[in-house]
Design the sequence.
């Protein structure tokens, strides 16, 4: 996954502009710069999400196909049994 850009200086400036004291704004910026990469590594991308969904739907379709085949075979056996009586 590509790295996310985080401008800690800009973040700190915006906090200061909003009235946050400079030491506190700098501390927040440093913590965000340390923490953000961890969360960025664990983000789910749209492509990955779609691939997982597609795989699950394909597996479900395969199971349903087996069930349909079983139902058709069972129905055929019932018809044959009833007609032979």
Sequence:
């Amino acid at each position: 996954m590509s790295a996310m850009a985080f401008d800690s200086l800009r973040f700190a400036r915006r906090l200061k502009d909003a009235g946050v004291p400079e030491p506190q704004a700098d501390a927040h910026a440093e913590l965000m710069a340390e923490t953000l990469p961890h969360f960025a590594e664990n983000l789910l991308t749209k492509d990955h999400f779609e691939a997982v969904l597609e795989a699950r739907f394909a597996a479900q379709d395969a199971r349903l196909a087996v069930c349909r085949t079983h139902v058709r075979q069972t129905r055929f056996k019932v018809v044959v049994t009833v007609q032979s009586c």
